[in-house]
Amino acid sequence: MFIGVVGKPNVGKSTLFSALTLKPVAIANYPFTTIDPNKAVAFFQTQCACRKLGVSCNPRTGKCVGGVRFVPINLVDVAGLVRGAHEGKGMGNKFLSDLSQADCLILVTDSSGSTDEAGNPMAPGSFSPVEDAKILEEEIDAWFFDVIKRNFNKSGWKSFDELAKSLSGLKITADLLSHAFSQLDFPLSKLYDADLKKLATFLRKKTKPFVIAANKADLASSKTGFEKLREAYPSNAVVACSGDYELALRKSEEKQWIKFTGNSFEITDAASGPARLALEKIRKFVDENNGTGVQKLLDESVKLLDLIVVFPVEDEGKYSDNFSHVLPDAVLLEKNSTPIQLAEKIHSDLAKGYLYAVDARKKTKLSKDYRLQNGDVIKIVSSK
After folding, report:
1. Structural fold of domain 307-382
2. Could you give phi then psi for residue 173, rounded to 5 degrees?
3. Statement: residue 281 has pLDDT above 90
4. What CATH homologous superfamily does 1-37+78-154+198-305 map to?
5. Where do you find CATH 3.10.20.30 in the chain?
6. What was the pLDDT predicted at 340?
7. By Cβ atoms counted within 10 A, which residue in 92, 115, 153, 161 is the most buried?
8. pTM to 2 decimal places
9. Per residue in 321-355, is it b (16+ CB within 10 Å) or e — as a string?
């Protein structure tokens, strides 16, 4: 899974990215701090299969804490997008292309309304975060339109397969194109710019769905901004969050100033003076909001894509791999995926030699058409 983190300059996007991944990135209070895309791994939380199986697991990646599994997800944070980015303004549309393979997006907005459309600081509440989201939507739509029009003008389209091949960089398939043309009632040829723009928006919504991060939720003016976002985007998940607070907590945990207990935390004796006062303020926010909202962004992104978690093993008796790692991996898959699709996700050779799959819990063979369920523990048997 690949999530793109986008936003206009100076909305706290890089801070949020660091809080999600603990990767150090350039963070400053001025536009275009991020020049190159930052890539890292964050962790989605889900119930681990270990509790129901009555075993202790030792994941190869991520971790399991109290039966909660931390599943790795790839994130990319790109330079701030301003109005006109698809025309090369700001950091230009090169950074839009960094999002081409994203499965979904996190649109980061300044819910406090304390930055203008270019990311310059202003009085809190002066700028609507709804405009933040609209700017991002408009720029990504315009980028899709440019790519589609350029390919259309280059060769024209004779079939959906041919069209999909030219747009594969945006994760657009022939089936999706067929569905789009059917829904929009378009012919395959003789499309005008207005038609192509409608097509671009349709395809963007299908291939780049998004969750909205109402960031800077710790500031007083953010409550009004959050409600405006929910009203403007009733069908999207809008998450009130504070990247600043989450990052502060992660750094405090490293210094052993705090100890997490679920979505809350305890302040240890190691924290004193200004640090303790700051943590008391953060704890009040966390208790009132059931967390900082940062983890919820990942949870909502996985929910948006309707994904399931499957645990592949090599030894169905011990629920382990050949190196005795119990429940070594947790794999995110599309809902209704089959065992052979799980094999493809693990390794192409495993899929090429695929023979059958085993439900490790029941110790029974599965048909090739079996639809994997969330939490399944599966052994793939292959000739490779």
Report:
1. Ubiquitin-like (UB roll) (3.10.20)
2. -105, 165
3. yes
4. P-loop containing nucleotide triphosphate hydrolases (3.40.50.300)
5. 307-382
6. 95
7. 115
8. 0.86
9. beeebbbbbbbbbeeebbbbebbbbeeeebbeebe
